[in-house]
Amino acid sequence: MKTAAFLGLGAMGVPMAAALARRAAQTGGRVLVWNRHMEKALAHAAEYGTQAATLQDTAQASVIFTCLPTSADVDEVIGQLEAHLNPGTVWVDCTSGHPDAARAQRARLLTHGVRFLDAPVSGGVNGAKAGNLTVMLGGPADEVEAVRGELAFAGTAVHVGDTGSGFAVKAVNNALLAVNLWATGEGLAVLGRGGVDLNAALQVINASSGRSNASENLIPARVLTREFPPTFGLGLLAKDTGIAMDLVDSVKGSAPVLAQVDALCRAASRMIGPNEDHTALLKLVEQMNEQEIR
Amino acid sequence: MKTAAFLGLGAMGVPMAAALARRAAQTGGRVLVWNRHMEKALAHAAEYGTQAATLQDTAQASVIFTCLPTSADVDEVIGQLEAHLNPGTVWVDCTSGHPDAARAQRARLLTHGVRFLDAPVSGGVNGAKAGNLTVMLGGPADEVEAVRGELAFAGTAVHVGDTGSGFAVKAVNNALLAVNLWATGEGLAVLGRGGVDLNAALQVINASSGRSNASENLIPARVLTREFPPTFGLGLLAKDTGIAMDLVDSVKGSAPVLAQVDALCRAASRMIGPNEDHTALLKLVEQMNEQEIR
Amino acid sequence: MKTAAFLGLGAMGVPMAAALARRAAQTGGRVLVWNRHMEKALAHAAEYGTQAATLQDTAQASVIFTCLPTSADVDEVIGQLEAHLNPGTVWVDCTSGHPDAARAQRARLLTHGVRFLDAPVSGGVNGAKAGNLTVMLGGPADEVEAVRGELAFAGTAVHVGDTGSGFAVKAVNNALLAVNLWATGEGLAVLGRGGVDLNAALQVINASSGRSNASENLIPARVLTREFPPTFGLGLLAKDTGIAMDLVDSVKGSAPVLAQVDALCRAASRMIGPNEDHTALLKLVEQMNEQEIR
Amino acid sequence: MKTAAFLGLGAMGVPMAAALARRAAQTGGRVLVWNRHMEKALAHAAEYGTQAATLQDTAQASVIFTCLPTSADVDEVIGQLEAHLNPGTVWVDCTSGHPDAARAQRARLLTHGVRFLDAPVSGGVNGAKAGNLTVMLGGPADEVEAVRGELAFAGTAVHVGDTGSGFAVKAVNNALLAVNLWATGEGLAVLGRGGVDLNAALQVINASSGRSNASENLIPARVLTREFPPTFGLGLLAKDTGIAMDLVDSVKGSAPVLAQVDALCRAASRMIGPNEDHTALLKLVEQMNEQEIR
């Protein structure tokens, strides 16, 4: 019987592990789940038919998934687990991690015969529940192909390059999210000060060339409503723009706009709060313009 | 018999006037067309069933449309035409114009009993041919409603606010286009330097939260192909980001990212060329990173 | 007996008019002073031997100096005074004004035979008291030379170009002040977070290539001391960076760093307060970094 | 007899080692010099009375100075020398290095009983020749005090904090140099487009609040003259702004202006050339504005 393990039952991890469990129920496998707080694993098992496990027990799985806040958390888990790992295991890290960490983690795990793939996801909690996340895979092509069938939570899984490339693309994606969100916020704040109806403005922008996921989805649903539902935290967005800047630095690139928005995200994380929803980034734009976006 | 006039037969004006002519053919009206170069008007008449007219003749139309490069060009046409205008005429300016100009033009035309509405469009040449442009209307609500039925080239027509608001929203839309395009270019150049496959990267970004019209349409069709087809010029994009900055200034707003991208657009217009397609903006990003986006 | 008039007794105007009075005492001339609040003029007369005058009375002076918050204030005074002005009068405007306003004001005053020169000053209250301000003169060379001897408050008076050039150079100077101040604040906040002693850091920077008036004078005297004495307001600095950006726009220039700092100054003026000293700009840097600069 | 060694005879190293030799001639010590290209060491010995040495021979010195392009070069030299080092030796690194490298280098050398201090310098070739460089020392206070007397090339030597702090302050200093230089270039390019005389503009800026080392020294001597003498390379400036950004990142700081100028320096290094003088940074500003600064 095939065994998978899922480590990290956060907002994304819960539905991702549930998707693995639905698949396992059809194919006769099983899914072990682990979380720093054991009660979350027990609750997951009760609700989705997975099995709560100790960290050590998860080492027996043939595929180990991680989905943790940062690469440093993954390092810590690897440290606790590596003595127990079996050669031939595949480690699929869905964390929004750091490309440099991916290369170090792969090298470290290879000494145990374990293959590491970076596999961050996009699509949010709704995408995870629907099992149609986008997965960006970094690593050797054959290993990527071999694991593709295991990604029960994926709608799209794309091999983007060598180890670390998945994390790199994810960081750039989130940096673009931050840019598009911030810039659209600037534009709306200014139009608002000028007396323009912001719902009408967004309607035409969304039928025009300036549209983005920020203008089409995030701002109408989360900002104009003043709800800012806390799903993906501002502190984590700032972490991701920082990873994007590390990437820029590592290739000696020049990215003045990404750099500026990274600095503004970090400022917003401090001034508005790291645990606020990432769309609360626009609260700093609002303060800078004394103009609510509503 | 109802008469409309269309002044300015550029890349957008030709299909927009053709849409008016198709409608007129059904409703028994006629469409006069004028262009600085008379042969363009004659060719349009031959192909689309409009009537080439002198500038003075267009003054007899009940609705006069203008679609010119800048508000300064509209000012010049108003100057030549105002002695001939009839009270009750409606002037619909589809130029990507300046909000301050709109207010001055409306005031000036009202002295002749002519009502001016700013009505810039979005959707490009393809949208114009299909008759489903997005129109952003600025002016008094009743006048906007009265003219709505005349906009044969529109798929969506939205009243966004008082006189000048249409131009303001259009400028912000184009500034957002510039930001999204530039930032996506930065991200791709850096990923390219890092050895990531850019087609794969765009595929996942377009299934993820960082997507925009730039990543979904412009870059795949115009940049990755290295075609940069010259439809909307870089110089005109820089003009529009400049209008957006004038708007920021007029409301004492703070928009550091729009400001930065405006400066970079202006630099690119000089260094790459104002008549290059607006997507050639990314050629400056490429030079800054010594990395082609392909 | 030669008569000069000084209009606008603010922090700068008081010592500037006093310098004129000291000169007049030697040369047998007299100095009329006017202020919106008459008591300020009376107090000045009592302390410095000038003569408080009504606005209309100042029109008899052969040289009229203005030093007001903005060009709009100068426009208003011109409006009230123009019916009374005599041909041959010279109007020297020491306001930190707008180049466009200078050209309009000169044209308007020339219709009355009055010559307008833009003549903003730098050096602060201390420089004004010492009579060694730097004056940047814009206008025809012969008129500039003719008025040079009247500038009793000047240590240095430089003809920088045609009408409006004085205001342009002043705006650029103040924009550079804003950039140098902000950037030095960023650097110090980051060093402070890294545990570096900021007095030591400033000591070496001021003996090195990164030094500026901000690092040598403003930050040690006003920021490290936490005094932020309110001499030149943050709102006025933001006005001046805005004038610099108008200048950039008028020549179709590309100045991404000036543009960014202009936006940040405007944000700081809103978030910290327009009447705080301009060095309180760094309080926004401090908030963005959660690090006091001390 | 006391022995010092100086490793790295570049533009700065030659006069710094010469200053050590002048001191040694008075105190009865000697100075060993080493360079990757032995002929440079032989020439230095012939001209300044030092002794050319093999790398291994320099290990006998009680104080070893390094002044190399980057911390990576210092790492390489340490690797070749560490087997030969004697406990009690002090290693003073005058490279414009990286704070992270300093901490690693100190830890590595301490295993051999060698104490490492980061001691970058400012003042340029002229300051080195005059023996009045500014030295920014990072490390334990007692070790800094103990070595102070050895710094024969220093006019000012300031202890700025723990290991790495010297490099941090140097990086921030050079980043501020880059900001001040770039921003002044923007301002002058725009004034030049507006017809202002740039010599006159600089004269008043240098007597006003916007002045900096860039406006007072670098631009008049190197840019207005169109000489751009290649003393400190643009590529090295971009390396230093990059170190400053690493520092910002390491403390989770927010420095949008330093970040933007870092990106622009990197672009200029690519587009203008890394071996051009750092003031050739303004050639990119000139291209962006189609306006020479002269």
TrEMBL record, chains A, B, C, D:
Record flagged with keyword Membrane: no
EC number: 1.1.1.31
Region forming the signal peptide: 1-17
Gene3D superfamilies listed in its UniProt record: N-(1-d-carboxylethyl)-l-norvaline Dehydrogenase, domain 2 (1.10.1040.10), NAD(P)-binding Rossmann-like Domain (3.40.50.720)
Residues annotated as the enzyme's active site: K170
Keyword Oxidoreductase: yes
Highest taxon, organism lineage: Bacteria
InterPro entries cross-referenced by the UniProt entry: 6-PGluconate_DH-like_C_sf, 6PGD_dom2, 6PGDH_NADP-bd, HIBADH-like_NADP-bd, HIBADH-related, NAD(P)-bd_dom_sf
GO MF assignments: 3-hydroxyisobutyrate dehydrogenase activity; NAD binding; NADP binding
The 6-phosphogluconate dehydrogenase NADP-binding domain, residue ranges: 5-157
Broad class of enzyme this protein falls into: oxidoreductase
PANTHER family in the record: 3-HYDROXYISOBUTYRATE DEHYDROGENASE-LIKE 1, MITOCHONDRIAL-RELATED
Listed name of the protein: 3-hydroxyisobutyrate dehydrogenase
Species whose genome carries this gene: Deinococcus humi
